[in-house]
Backbone:
């Protein structure tokens, strides 16, 4: 479901503009230690290590080649950068430092959005390498791919999917064995953690509860024994409607498929890991830019429906008199604003009827007791 103002905020954020992406990445990495120390020998580099890191983020975020980065460099750096230097810098990065950038983005987004639930899943990303394996008693050559495990949170208020933790493994590694690594340093605060049957391990359930999550994993098709397994099965049946929202998390993998084709051009093991982690950094960076643009423009995404009371409490903004009429225009206007997006250029005085206007006079006219309760009382003869 796309919330009101989503596309307008996405357009104003300029998430596909090389200048906007570079400036946001530069301000972000400025709060981190440099990825490497500058060498005292040789000629001084044109850019600092943090600026080179921001260039690498632009390289992956916009899915450019080294030559294209060299061509775009004068537009956002005001100077030229050779494509060979971009390649050398990219190989010099460490996966642990990229995870640090991902953690900083997670903290930034947590300040703008409150998560409703979390989900954990994995997807495959192919590489240019070919590998030989035995299939049906024959040796076949097929594409090598890695499995990307992701733990993310969803905020319906900000309409945002935020990657909280990630891990790369070989394709023969089961998903359930990686949950312990993804939950390190995270606190669930009593929110739900959704996952498929691959995570339905007793150890994973106990670990999720220890971290503050309420696990909701699809039970495996096995015979259940014991009170613990029966409680898990009962909990899943009661929250089956919530479990169906796990498909929202597939939007992260869909974005990787649309932007990168679920493929990396890198051939070395280190650069393959770096490029896959930077894909998730690019996702969080674009989400941060869009959420900030939405707040700047005044968009407020509300998914839930405001539960109205049977009476309008307080004073009417039209006549400034105590009002307990549900049909009051002011009451309906407040309810409407809580249901829809807030537009900053639309002032209350422009949208609410004035007492001197015909509509305001009609809404604020004295009403009988029967009209207040929605019925027309006939006077007694």
Residues:
């Amino acid at each position: 479901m796309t919330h009101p103002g989503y596309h307008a905020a996405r357009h104003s954020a300029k998430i596909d503009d090389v200048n906007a992406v570079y400036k946001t990445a530069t301000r972000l990495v400025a709060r981190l230690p440099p990825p490497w120390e500058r060498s005292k020998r040789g000629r001084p580099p044109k850019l600092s290590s943090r600026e080179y890191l921001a260039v690498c983020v632009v390289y992956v975020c916009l899915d450019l080649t080294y030559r294209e980065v060299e061509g775009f460099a004068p537009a956002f750096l005001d100077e030229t950068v050779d494509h060979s230097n971009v390649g050398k810098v990219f190989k010099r990065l460490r996966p642990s430092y990229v995870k640090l950038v991902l953690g900083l983005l997670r903290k930034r987004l947590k300040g703008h959005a409150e998560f409703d639930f979390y989900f954990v899943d994995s997807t495959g990303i192919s590489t240019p390498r070919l590998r030989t394996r035995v299939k049906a008693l024959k040796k076949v050559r097929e594409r090598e791919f890695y499995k990307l495990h992701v733990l993310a949170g969803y905020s319906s208020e900000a309409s945002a999917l935020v990657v909280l933790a990630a891990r790369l493994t070989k394709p023969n590694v089961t998903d359930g064995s990686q949950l312990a690594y993804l939950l390190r340093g995270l606190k669930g605060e009593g929110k739900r953690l959704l996952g498929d049957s691959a995570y339905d391990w007793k150890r994973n359930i106990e670990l999720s509860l220890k971290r503050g999550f309420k696990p909701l994993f699809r039970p495996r098709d096995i015979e259940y024994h014991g009170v613990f397994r029966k409680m898990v099965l009962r909990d899943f049946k009661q929250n089956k409607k919530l479990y169906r929202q796990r498909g929202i998390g597939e939007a992260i993998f869909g974005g990787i498929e649309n932007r990168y084709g679920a493929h990396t051009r890198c051939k070395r093991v280190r650069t393959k890991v770096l490029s896959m982690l930077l894909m998730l950094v690019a996702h969080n960076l674009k989400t941060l830019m869009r959420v900030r643009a939405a707040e700047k423009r005044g968009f407020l995404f509300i998914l839930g429906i405001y539960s109205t009371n049977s009476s309008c409490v307080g004073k009417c903004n039209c006549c400034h008199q105590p009002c307990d009429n549900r049909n009051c225009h002011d009451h309906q206007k407040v309810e409407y604003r809580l249901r829809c997006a807030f537009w900053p250029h639309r002032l209350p005085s422009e949208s609410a009827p004035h007492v001197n206007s015909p509509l305001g006079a009609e809404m604020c006219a004295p009403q009988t007791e029967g009209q207040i309760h929605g019925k027309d009382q006939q006077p007694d003869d």
In short: Residues 95-270 form one domain. The longest helix spans residues 269-297.
